[in-house]
Write a structure and sequence with these properties.
Elements lengths: L6 E5 L15 H13 L4 E7 H4 L8 H16 L3 E8 L1 E2 L2 E3 L5 E5 L6 E3 L2 E3 L1 E3 L6 H17 L8 E6 L10 H18 L3 E5 L3 H4 L6 H7 L3 E4 L16 H13 L3 E6 L13 H5 L8 H17 L4 E5 L34 H8 L28 H20 L1
Parallel strand pairs: 1-2, 1-14, 2-3, 5-7, 10-11, 12-13, 13-14
Antiparallel strand pairs: 4-5, 6-9, 7-8
């Protein structure tokens, strides 16, 4: 992690397959997409190993899916892309995708539905941070994947999960730390590659028993995801300053390099199928013009680099095909259809054309000392009242930005 290169990457699901791509794998489709990413200077790609597809039984890793993953890695190498496979996925776009054997018989009418065995339910997810058989299953998946790709030049790092606290929250910090230790050590033994965990803003808003400090203890770098339109303490749903702020707080807490692994915004489709007035009324967040999203990315990348992040990776590769709109998760989460850097026909959006011309910024190395505006806060007390602390700190940060402009 000593390089001063600021990385730009993308979170990848194929336009025509979305979360179902491992079930209907097409290497030609992946090659076309990876070639396109290379042409547009998008050199890092985060992919997701849907848990049920890769591990249909706790003691069985799908040989076919491992073979597909190796093909993906070979294609990434062909186009000089770096991959970050994400294990145990897990939470994705408003639903939790889980194998049947990781579910309890009890129901949990929580925020997110569970998708398992081709159906939607509200079954409770078992504690995969603690229960012995689930720990063994996760270790097995890491071992099989890590051994299959050991030494592969396309692998940048492994991710232990995507916003895992949306699936289940550890009972306490010690439980979360033990899980991190076991999983991180397994990655190191199996593949010797870098490892991280896909954290998001809600891991800062609430004490979900895995803190950035804990991830930093066991992982090579820390991750943050941020979208201002999902945060009720942010007045402007398009406030780009939320991104460097969340990154700085994560860096301050973890005292370790931070990758801003997810950011982005949905844009109004400019090709058919267009969004209808009824659909607009049912959106769970605003949707902006391509021009505004381009400006948002431009500002975000500049400020995240300036704030000392090691990279900024966009959500996501492409707008999804119409044929997926009646399926989970796009049926209920209409805005998720439109986050792409590419349109649903594969053509680049304005933001992607900007990225192609972008000169990569060089990160400003973060000081070991907290930024001046953070000097009045105590990191050891942050999780005593995290959401209120975030509100106060964000206001302090915005006031600090005003003084910088003078």
């Amino acid at each position: 992690m000593s390089s001063n290169e600021f990385t730009f990457g993308v979170n990848y699901w194929p336009i025509n397959k979305a979360m179902y791509w491992w079930q209907d794998f097409d290497p030609d489709e992946v090659e076309e997409d990876f070639k396109k990413l290379a042409e547009f200077n998008i050199n890092y790609v985060r992919i997701f190993l849907t848990w049920e597809d890769f591990q249909p039984e706790p003691n069985l890793i799908s040989t076919n899916k491992i073979g597909y993953l190796c093909q993906v890695a070979d294609l990434a190498l062909k186009y000089k892309l770096k991959l970050m496979p994400t294990f145990f996925c897990g939470h994705m776009s408003g639903a939790n995708w889980m194998p049947y054997w990781a579910l309890d018989t009890k129901l949990d009418k929580s925020r997110f539905p569970v998708y398992s065995q081709n159906r939607v339910s509200y079954q409770k997810i078992r504690n995969f941070y603690k229960e012995a058989d689930l720990l063994e299953a996760q270790v097995l998946q890491i071992e099989k994947v890590g051994q299959s790709l050991k030494g592969h030049a396309a692998i940048y790092a492994y991710d232990l999960g995507n916003e895992s606290s949306n699936c289940h929250i550890p009972t306490d910090r010690l439980e979360g730390q033990r899980w991190l230790e076991i999983m991180s050590n397994t990655v190191k033994k199996s593949s010797h590659d870098l490892v991280t965990l896909g954290m998001h803003a809600e891991d800062l808003e609430e004490d979900r028993h895995i803190w950035p400090q804990d991830v930093a203890k066991y992982c090579d770098f820390v991750v943050m995801h941020g979208y201002p339109f999902y945060l009720d303490w942010v007045e402007d749903p398009f406030d780009v300053w939320v991104l460097p702020f969340l990154g700085i707080i994560t860096l301050w807490l973890a005292d370790k390099p931070v990758l801003f692994q997810e950011f982005g915004a949905p844009s109004i489709p400019t090709i058919s199928p267009y969004i209808t007035s009824d659909e607009k009324a049912n959106l769970k967040c605003p949707i902006w013009s391509e021009e505004l999203v381009k400006d948002y990315y431009q500002k975000a990348i500049k400020e995240l680099a300036k704030a000392g992040m090691i990279g900024a990776w966009g959500w996501c590769f492409g707008d999804y095909s119409l044929k997926l709109w009646d399926q989970v998760p796009l049926k209920e989460n209409l805005h998720e259809r439109y986050f792409g850097l590419f349109k649903s026909n594969g053509k680049p959006k304005l933001v992607t054309q900007y990225l192609q011309k972008m000169i990569k910024p060089v990160i400003i190395t973060a000081s070991n000392k907290a930024p001046q505006w953070l000097s009045m806060f105590n990191r050891e007390e942050f999780y005593l009242n995290p959401k209120e602390n975030l509100k106060t700190m964000f206001n302090t940060y915005k006031e600090y930005l005003k003084t910088e402009e003078i």
